From TrEMBL:
Residues 188-198 have a biased composition (Low complexity). One of its GO terms (cellular component) is nucleus. Keywords: DNA-binding, Nucleus. InterPro entries: Ets_dom (IPR000418), ETS_fam (IPR046328), WH-like_DNA-bd_sf (IPR036388), WH_DNA-bd_sf (IPR036390). PANTHER family: ETS (PTHR11849), ETS-DOMAIN PROTEIN (PTHR11849:SF190). The keyword Protease does not apply. GO terms for biological process: cell differentiation. This is EHF. PROSITE patterns: ETS_DOMAIN_3. Residues 254-264 have a biased composition (Basic and acidic residues).
Amino acid sequence: MFDRGNFRSDLFNGIMASTVFPSLADVFTEAILTEDIFQSLDQVSSRAMSETMESVKGLNENDFLNQHVLSEEKAEVFFNLLKMDWEASDIDFWTGNIFSKISCFHDNGNESAQLPESADSSIQELTQPDDLMIPLMWPNVYGDQGGETLVVEYEIEVPPEETGEMIYANSPGSAGDISDFSSEPENDSSCGGSDGSSPMISYSKVEVKTEPGLDEQRQAAPYLPVQAILSPYEEEELEDYNDTVIRHKKRRKSDAEYIADGRKRPGRKKGQTSSVYHLWEFIRDLLHDPKQRIIKWENEQEGIFRVVKSSEVAKQWGNMKKNREKMTYEKLSRSLRYSRKEGYFEDVPKDEGYPKKLCFKFGPKSHGWKRL
DNA sequence: GGTTTATTTCCTGCTT
DNA sequence: GAAGCAGGAAATAAAC
């Protein structure tokens, strides 16, 4: 299901990060949570610039390359600086104007460039964060055949001008969530309250022109390690290569091979999620249910939780997936370990007193578990 | 119908 | 010894 709140935060992270270091958007996205950004942005406007500048001293590229080094505090300071910069440029980032900035950025950084006049035939309707994130982060990957124009349709919640209040959409079904927008208006239209007392929903459509030539990007960013500039598929291929060295794993076709065959790579894009109800979503929703006693938080702020009744959790997961008695905790935990590899969960910190068994932590690809 | 994603199933070996 | 953890391998359903 479309998660509007996280779409917005990912969008924001991606845009901000793309402006500074295009290949680091994923690091920001993993490191910073929705509330950290939006709450801090509300507080920053009156803060002295010199004070902020002082506290951001010591940040370097390594901080941004290593999500474990990049503390939330530093991230907040950095984003505050960006916000000030954008405000100074008279850019209203709650509107579609932000996309003209991005479009210009991807047009070889030429600030005076204009949005493309019209979309080409490959119009796509993009509804997931990664649909936008990946073209923004890896403009060359999707432009191997000479560049293409993606049409991105999106909506952004505009806070009431007088109060600046913002409703945070968290998980589907939560307050502020408007998952059903089957009757989306066309370009740049708005709907919702206009009396300044309730948020407005702004619908927009923008074209993102992609550029060919990954080599050029590498040449343009020699300060970044090579690994940071690999395309998602190249990363896979590197993994495959490394695996092959070890145990002759079945090799996956490269993009170049598909293009040579004159066809598009089939299947989902890397990172593109389906509408399937995922294990991490099941666990998240279970944790949000105050009536249940089979799973509990160990540290909600950190996303660390503990399974109290393993067999019952497995049984409910089995019911959810309609295979009932066949599901066991052993199978569920195997799925959970695979999900951890994919980033939906991650290792529980050692030596911090958390139980060694039945204890897990949400990862960077999961969201909506933290109450705002 | 080929491919990818997100499991599911089964398994061995290890740790608590 | 039971329960849980780690991860390989193969199978599967759904999505694309």
